[in-house]
Design goal:
The protein is α/β, with parallel strands linked by helices and 791 residues long. The protein folds into three domains: 151-218 and 442-639, Rossmann fold, CATH 3.40.50; 224-435, Dimethylsulfoxide Reductase, domain 2 (3-Layer(aba) Sandwich), CATH 3.40.228.10; 673-786, Beta Barrel (Barwin-like endoglucanases). It contains 30 helices and 33 strands. It has a six-stranded mixed β-sheet with strand order 6-5-18-17-16-7, with helices on both faces. It starts with 41 loop residues before the first strand and ends in a 5-residue tail after the last strand.
């Protein structure tokens, strides 16, 4: 790759022609730097269908606000299309199998429009604003300044970011990595938006350097799912695909706010209801996706304002009570099997499972009283869910972070598998486990090598195909990396996408950890908090967005992504890059790698000329990626093989494994509440589009805590009273937020909820699951008191 001292590498580009709209110039900080118009907070129950006209109006307002008059509609027509379209950079829900022309959602359109903004952040902006000044801006105001346009380096003498050429930027990053006395003093983080090809090169860089320090966002979200499924079935992924959702008899949706986090699931839920499937939603809050929807691309329903139900039963267990509910359903199935031979699939259990007798004993010995106490549901409600499961021939269980971000997240996912095994709901159409991944390629990141605990078989193939000797010692995950940075044991932190400073737990601790580094490198599309919380030296390396054309020597390149259901397909950008000085993520990885490893035998520059070359190497390393370049160009791509779907279990016993974990005690101590963090509707991960949360009826407010009315009454609180929320960590230390507003909500007694990333501060760095190492952000032990009473 050729570079110069003060310009970006210049791969061939298409003829420029006039821009559709000129980019806006950098702006001064607005007087109101929040996302919403100033106004009093307002909360009222939301009774409308999910999506529908509410989504259409919200999208229209957003497109107008961002000035995306032409690019927005163009993007809508190209997003999630197999014929040369680009993959939505939002959630990982699979592309429609029926060829819909509008396989889109409200939040996907917002996410893409946010990326395609005409606003720019270049050297003039950084010259006008010091890092100290920018640190006082809101997170919305930072991202709202627009797209980064050229590499920048932090100048400690002036407290400003200043321009740096790509060659010098790579030399700085590479020199820092090359100069480490131990490669384990570097960490390479990635968010879930990174494409498969860049992911493969990124892990190759880390391992050729000599470390497995590859923390990623999975460490904070679905690590429990992967470990549980691997232990039970021999695969770290779900076994179902979208076609299974189209024929199943019953759907059990646990800990998922689908209308906001995976909105295209609404189509599957509505279609399931129309064909007569049972849909059971299990969540402490009854979310909008659990009630009704109008699918925007169903023009008849939109014209008639005709809603379709998306659920047939809503159960509200206490926070952390899912496992007790599942145990109760299993207990009911086993009790019914004494008189109903069809309740239990004895032949499946005998042929394909191990540990059934021990699991049956555990269920029989668990009293109904304990199941009721821990779940927060009465026996009748549990039996109602069990009846739905018993009467369905084929069932799918789907879950998200409401299940995984707990101390007992692995045990809960294994309990889901236990329940599936009892009735043989595995290895056949319309049945199985279906975790909902939250970011567009987070599953692909893990598949393609981002794993701090890599398998020996993967490392063996990597060594053979790439001619390197990868390290065998396990590396650091996200929490371990933060702790190591704080101790001064990590000198170089590279963040590939995301907003690590906000997404991680224990915000002040994480900020101190980043500041302790010698160098932090952030590969980003927009300005965010992680650029202002940095090491002694810092680089901002701006990259292409998912919507933008990636021109390399061999022409416009495509990248591949893997969705929640193991489908791998191509994504091709549609738009001219926001700046001629942007590089693709693979090119940035390659540039750092060559500077860090000048004698590397890896053909980094050759790879970047044509991404097919990267895919050819990936096909030799990654199980299931054989004939990668041909298969990924098939309609809808290809599905990675899932042995467990074929009833081939890569476990020690060669069978699916029942687990026998005891029920955890999740009942809050007197005077305390169990608090779970969550997104608002008008938010994607740490990116906040407004201070509204339409589906929960909230306007102009994010600093709130949702509470049960009886819990508020017990504390003498009325709506919008100011409160202090204090968490107590496992080591006895406390963390507080002050002046939040109490909001009454339909949530079980003893439970509370509020928004991330603001409430991440309440999750101590040491409060992570001993089963999955995930921060337990969905199960914080807190006290809520009228503001001013706490210290």
């Amino acid at each position: 790759m050729t570079t110069s001292d003060d310009t970006a590498p210049t791969p061939p580009r298409e003829p420029q022609g006039p821009q559709e709209q000129p980019p806006e110039q950098p702006r001064e900080r607005p007087e109101n730097d929040g996302p919403s118009p100033a106004g009093p907070p307002h909360v009222q129950p939301y009774h409308h269908p999910a999506a529908g006209w509410g989504a259409a109006k919200s999208v229209t307002r957003f497109l107008l606000r961002e000035g995306a008059y032409l690019d927005g509609p163009r993007a809508v027509m190209r997003m999630n299309h197999e014929d040369g379209g680009f993959d939505c950079p939002g959630c990982a829900w699979p592309d429609d199998t029926k060829g819909l022309h509008l396989d889109i959602c409200e939040n996907g359109i917002k996410h893409v429009t946010w990326e395609m903004t005409r606003k720019r952040v270049g050297r003039e902006f950084f010259a006008a604003h010091s890092v100290t000044e920018l640190s006082g801006w809101s997170d919305f105001a930072l991202e709202d300044q627009g797209r980064l346009t050229e590499p920048m380096v932090y100048d400690a003498d002036t407290d400003h970011y200043v321009p740096i050429g790509w060659k010098d930027a790579f030399a700085l990053a590479g020199g820092a990595l090359r100069g480490l006395d131990d490669p384990n003093r570097a960490a390479f983080y990635t968010s879930g938006r990174l494409g498969n090809e860049a992911t493969f090169l990124y892990q190759l860089l880390a391992r050729e350097l000599g470390t497995n320090n590859l923390p990623d966002c999975s460490n904070m979200c679905h690590e429990a799912s992967g470990r549980a499924l691997q232990a039970a079935l021999g695969t770290g992924k779900g076994t179902v695909d979208l076609k299974d959702w189209e024929v199943t008899d019953a759907l059990f949706i646990l800990g998922v706010n689908a209308a906001s986090n995976a909105p295209r699931m609404l189509t599957s839920l509505a279609e399931a209801y129309k064909r007569g499937a049972q849909i059971v939603h299990i969540n402490p809050l009854v979310e909008a996706a659990a009630t009704r929807t109008i699918i925007p691309h169903d023009f008849t329903d939109m014209a008639l304002n005709r809603a379709t139900r998306t659920g047939t039963l809503n159960l509200q267990p206490r926070i952390g009570g899912d496992m007790a509910l599942l145990r109760g359903m299993a207990k009911a199935i086993l009790e019914q099997s004494a008189t109903d031979e069809r309740a239990l699939d004895r032949l499946f259990v005998e042929r394909h499972t191990s540990g059934f007798e021990a699991y049956r004993d555990v269920c029989e010995s668990t009293p109904w009283e304990e199941i009721e106490r821990q779940s927060g549901l009465d026996r009748a409600a549990v039996l109602k869910a069990a009846r739905v499961y018993r009467e369905a021939d084929r069932s799918i269980f789907s879950w998200c972070l409401g299940v995984t971000q707990h101390e007992h997240g692995v045990d809960t996912v294994r309990e889901i598998v236990n329940l599936l095994l009892l009735r043989g709901n595995l290895g056949r159409e319309g049945a199985g486990p279906s975790p909902v991944r939250g970011h567009s390629n987070v599953q692909g990141n893990r598949t393609c090598g981002i794993d701090h605990r890599p398998a020996d078989a993967f490392l063996d193939r990597l060594a053979e195909a790439c001619g390197i000797e990868p390290p065998r010692e396990h590396g650091l995950d996200t929490v371990g990396t933060i702790e190591a940075m704080r101790r001064g044991e990590i000198e170089v932190f590279v963040g590939m996408g995301g907003n690590f400073a906000l997404a991680a737990p224990d915000t002040p601790y994480t900020h101190q950890a980043l500041a302790a580094c010698a160098l932090t490198v952030q590969v980003s599309t927009k300005l965010n908090r992680s650029h202002l919380v940095h090491g002694r030296r810092a680089l901002i390396l701006p990259c292409l967005g998912r919507t933008e054309k990636d021109h390399q020597r061999a022409g416009v390149q495509s990248t591949s992504v893997e969705d929640s259901m193991s489908m791998v397909h191509l994504s091709v950008g549609m738009k001219r890059p926001a700046s001629p000085h942007l590089l693709s993520e693979p090119a940035i990885v390659a540039g750092i790698a060559r500077a860090a490893l000048p004698d590397s035998p890896t053909p980094w520059e050759w790879y970047i000329e044509d991404y097919d070359r990267i895919r050819d190497t990936m096909a030799r390393v990654l199980d299931g990626f054989e004939d990668f370049n041909r298969r990924v160009r098939l309609p809808l791509g290809f599905r990675i093989k899932q042995p467990a779907r074929e009833l081939v279990f890569l476990t020690r016993s060669g069978k699916a494994e029942f687990s026998t974990a005891p029920l955890p005690d999740v009942v809050p101590a007197p005077g305390t509440l169990a608090l779970g963090t969550m997104r608002s509707h008008d938010q994607w991960n740490t990116t906040i589009y407004s201070d509204d949360d339409r589906y929960r009826g909230v306007k102009n407010l994010r600093t709130l805590v949702f509470m049960n009315r009886d819990d508020m009454r017990e504390r003498g609180l009325a709506e919008f009273d100011r409160v202090d929320v204090t968490s107590t960590a496992g080591d006895g230390s406390t963390r507080s937020v002050h002046g939040y507003l109490a909001v009454p909500y339909d949530i079980p007694r003893g439970c509370a909820a509020g928004y991330m990333p603001e409430l991440n501060v309440l999750c101590a760095i040491g409060d992570f699951s001993t089963q999955s190492d995930q921060p337990i952000m969905k199960h914080l032990k807190v006290t809520v008191e009228r503001a001013g009473r706490t210290g």
